[in-house]
Each structure stands twice: as structure tokens, then as C-alpha cells.
Amino acid sequence: MKKQRLIILGGGESGVGTALLGKDKGYEVFVSDKGIIKEKYKKVLIHNEIEFEDGQHTEAKILNADIIMKSPGIPDKVVLIKQIRAKGIKVVSEIEFASNFTKATLIAITGSNGKTTTASLTHHLLKQELNVGLAGNIGDSFAKQILEENYPNYVLEISSFQLDDIIEFKPKIAVLLNVTPDHLDRYDYVFENYIASKFRIIKNQAKEDYFIYDADDEVIESWLMQHPIQSTLLPFSLTKQIENGAYLDKDNIKITIDNNQIIMPTKNLALEGKHNVKNAMAASTVAHLLKIRKQTIRESLENFQGVEHRLENVLKINKVQYINDSKATNVNATYYALESMDAPTVWIVGGQDKGNDYQELFQFVNEKVKAIICLGVDNEKLMANFGHMVDVIVETQYMSEAVKIAYKIAEAGENVLLSPACASFDLFENYEDRGRQFKDAVRNL
């Protein structure tokens, strides 16, 4: 029998993981990356005798595929993808490909904001009592973990780009945290297309599967009213009483599933801010569903350390707190960051704009921000939106300079917050690189 030809577009973490799993499962594998594949990934491919190319896509080697796994970063608008689709070749995401080779219980988490924090927190709650992996947009690729670890349970952080290329993917538990305009450049600037993409997470679920979601999110609520879904619903809310699901009652989170209720006090939550109460509700609902003991959930919520680059306290210098929120790559994430500031703040913002509407930030900027430092190649939109709101607004293209300016402006008892509301690719490799440069610059003051 002729081997099936698996072509992988993109030689990053998910691409190389898929290549290893594909080879192990008997596919003929070829990896193609238009950019340059990182040295550490090249070594893995060479060591495993997997054929690859970088710096180009050779059509003749790609268009004869039986199945194609494309990196989530490659948009459908690319000519090569159009050619592949025109030939009727099956295109899948790594999540879709890998899930065919595991019988594990899958917990899939998506949302415009809070995915990484909630996935990490959920994993932290479950790992105390279950054998569980953490994958998706985070850590080692899902495909590689299935090959090497084969955990009986996985928490998966999943982006809309990964969901766009799923066909049969069916998580036992799906979590949708929120839907706010993000990545609209990938969805023809039509918010509805992006919403539909997020809801693909429950597309294959049945009655015995669970859907955990934010019942305070109007976008989610209105979508659910218009589309019948099969899953068992477990909403969470800060404002309304929920019969099956989670809600906030004074300072307690109450979670009820099949008449079995647990109560969690919020006063000792390790993570601060209203949005983190929601993230805790979502994670605890998953844990309660999977029969994790109440005591374990409570202790884990209290000792969770948080995620790097997400409202991360870096240092206090001369009584000024420096905070790294480089992971805030959209306006809504920055909304939460500014909302949680309790002192006058010097705000470092900017980068690659994805069609942002800054209006929802105006109240906080007027109330809490004393100076703005624009850190991007093109800061025109920021200057136009915020120029008249603060006395000091400056532009720079260097992180070290941004931090030095902030150091001069901020006074004792105030904050310096990096919360860019934009993608990082204009000046940095990615948001991690941006966050690390910020932390290095602060430590070098």
C-alpha cells in the first residue's frame, strides 16, 4: 500500500511536532517553510530523517499531497493555499491532525483574551490529581506530546486560526472565555466571521460533551440564541444567578453541576482583577466536572503564579512598580490591564495595529494615565486618539529608550505599564521578545 503523503507548511513548533507524529504513524512527510526554519527545529528534522525545505515553497512537492497541515500563521488568502484548496486537497490544523491519534479527554479553551492564563490555571488545578498535558498554543506541540507522553487528559489553548482548520475535532469540554474584535485583518474585517471561527470549538460536540462560557458576554449570548447547539451548557457569570454552572455570590464563586455544588472564596485568589475571577470560574468548573476535590481546587487557585508577560510585576524601583503586560496584543486585553491599575500610570503602548478601535480605553486613560509612550513604527493613530487626553505623549522605537523616558516621568507610588494593545511584529520578534526586552531594560535602570 502506498504511503499517504503528508505535507506540512511551516517549520515551527506545531509543524515539527506534526512531522514527528506523522512519520511515526506511517506517512511520507515533507516540511516546507517560506521563512527560515530555526536551527533547533532543523536539527530535529535532520535527526529524524524528515525531508524539508526553507526559504521557499516548491509547488511540485506540495501539490501532490494527500493531506496538508498548515501553520496557523498562514492565511487562506495566500496563493498557494488557494491552489491547494482548488485541487481539493484536505487542509487541517495540527490540533485536528493530532487529535486523531489519541483517546484522551480533551479540554479545549479559546477566547479573545485570557486563554493562556485560563489554560495554565486549568492545567494547574487538574495536575494535582490527574495525569494531564498542556498544549495547543502553549509549550510543546500537541502532536509531539501525543507521540512522546500520550497523557490521558489534555488542556489545549486554541486560537481562532487553529479552529479555522478543524474538521472532526471534538473536545469533551470546550471553554469560550469571551469574544471581542481581534485579528480582524484575517477575517476580512467582518466581526461575524471571527465569531463563527471561535464557535467552531463546539461544532462537533454532542449532548454528553460540555460547553463552558461567559454568560455576561453579549456576543456569545446572542450567538447562542440564534444557533442551536448540542452540548450541555455550563455558563459562568459575575452578575446573574446560574442554576447549572458558576456565578459570583458576594465574595464566593458558587459552582453547581448536576445538583452538586461547591463554593470557593475569592478573597485569596492569587490573580487580581475581575477578569481573573472569570478565568478562575472557568478553570474551576472544568476541575469540578472532572471530579477534582474542592480542597485541591481552592489551594491551587490560591497558589497559582500567573503567566509570564501577563500583568507580570517586574520590579519596584524608587517606589515605582514596573508591570509587563506584553501579552496584551489587542484593545480588550489592555482594557483589563488599565482597569486594574490603582495608581497614576505611565502607559507604554503601540505596535502593529490590527484595525483597533481605542474608544473603550478613553475612560481609563482620562482617569488613570498620566503619560503615554508610543512604541511602534507608526504611532499616528495613537497620537490622534490620545494626544489631547494626557499632558505628556512621546514616540520612540526602542524599548530601552521607552523605559528610560518612563523612569524620568514616573514618581513614587505610581506605575509603569507595558500594555501594547497591538501585535509586536513591527519592532520585535513576538510578544515574548517584547516583554523580555522590557524586563531587561527595567533591570538595567
From TrEMBL:
Pathway(s) of this molecule: Cell wall biogenesis; peptidoglycan biosynthesis
Keywords: ATP-binding, Cell cycle, Cell division, Cell shape, Cell wall biogenesis/degradation, Cytoplasm, Ligase, Nucleotide-binding, Peptidoglycan synthesis
Superkingdom assignment: Bacteria
Residues the record lists as binding ATP: G111, S112, N113, G114, K115, T116, T117
Pfam family, one: Mur_ligase_M
Subcellular location: Cytoplasm
Coiled-coil portions: none
Role of this protein: Cell wall formation. Catalyzes the addition of glutamate to the nucleotide precursor UDP-N-acetylmuramoyl-L-alanine (UMA).
HAMAP family the UniProt entry points to: MurD
Name by which UniProt lists this protein: UDP-N-acetylmuramoylalanine--D-glutamate ligase
Species whose genome carries this gene: Psychroserpens ponticola
Gene it is expressed from: murD
